[in-house]
Structure formats: structure tokens, C-alpha cells
Amino acid sequence: MKLRHILLATTLLFTPAHAFAESVTMVPPPAIDQPVSAKTETIVLAGGCFWGVQGVYQHMKGVTSAVSGYSGGKKDTANYELVSNGDTGHAEAVEVTFDPKVVSLGKVLQVYFSVAHNPTELNRQGPDTGTQYRSAIFTTTADQQKMAKAYIDQIDKAKVYSDPIVTQVSSLEAFYPAEAYHQDYATINPTQPYIVYNDLPKIENLSKIFPQDYRKKPVLVSDAKPTN
Hints:
Blueprint: E1 41-47, H1 50-58, E2 63-71, H2 80-83, E3 91-98, H3 105-116, E4 124-125, E5 128-129, E6 135-139, H4 142-158, E7 168-171, E8 176-177, H5 185-188, H6 193-209
Parallel strand pairs: 6-7
Antiparallel strand pairs: 1-3, 1-6, 2-3, 2-8, 4-5
């Protein structure tokens, strides 16, 4: 199925993003945050279509890179056409690299559970259904995994959501960047109906709920300097 999101009603083109930004759950910060122990840190987050998750983190202070891609399956199936079938094991995911001196892992996860997606939806997110849209955290260190699991337990016990968190937590085996046309998608296509309805509200919620962590100018994949 090709760019399934374009099928939404074209009337949404003229609807301001704030009209859809009212429903959001503010999750409390983790009881115990991770101490600063590295110059840079990476975690891979899946929460529905990667366009919106990437857009949120590209607007977050301290994030130095947010790349859309695939995790959970094999290298030879890490492409959009196959992943869209829902049987590759992959989830649409975003590789988030951040400076822990500027933004903590706890804050990255708080934004993930509060505005980047709804962590109580099983194998779906909004209009998108299938295991490729599951809620999942792929950790790169044992400390990340321990903290993510503890945070989920904290949120569930506090009954922040009426339904339990379904987010899966596992060690990252591999991350495969998505095709170039998926990168920076929310920034490049701000009037596309799917973006207007589903993703711009997430970015607006970041600016309203976490104003101290929001930056207006996103860090884009296209701005990254190639390495030799």
C-alpha cells in the first residue's frame, strides 16, 4: 500500500493543527532519571507512523538527530513496501540521538509517553493498524532498558492512563534508516492531510506542555553533514 495516509479527506488541508491538539495525557516524569555518563546517547522509539515521532523529536532541545527507519526485523525486509504488509517483524521507528547534558533520558521518555504517541494502543496508532505501528522501545544499554521498564511500571501503577501501557521494551539489534522520502516528512509536507490531522498536533503539544524543551527550528536529516 503506497503512502496510505494521503487518503484522508482533503478538507483537513484547511483545518488548523490546534483544532486537533486538545486530547493529550501529561505523564509525570520518571521517579529516577538516568545520570549523565556519556557525551551522546541513542535510543530507538516506535509509536505509530514514524513521520510524527520523528517530527516531535526534531523539535526537542538536546536532540542532535532523529532518523526515521525500521527495527525489529531483518535487513532484507527493511523497506517500506514490505514493512507495510505487517509481517516482517519490523516497527516503524525513530533513532533518537541526544546530548544527555541538555536533555535527559527521562525527559525523552516522558515526551514519548505524553505527546509522541498513545502507549495504550496495541498494534495500532490512530488510523494506522498493524504490528509495524506497535509501541516499542529499543534500548542500546542495560541502564536504558532498566529505566524504561521501571517507568512503564510507574505510569501503570499511577493509573495515568485508564488502560495499561502496551509498550514493548527490548534490546536494539539493528536500526535501518528509512527511504529518503520519509525523512523530515512532517517538515517538508506541513499541509498534507495526514500530517495536519495526526502529527502537527503532537508537535504543538510538545511546545505547549514542554515549552522549556521545545525548539521552533527542527534538526533535520537533510541538514546533516556527510562524513568521509
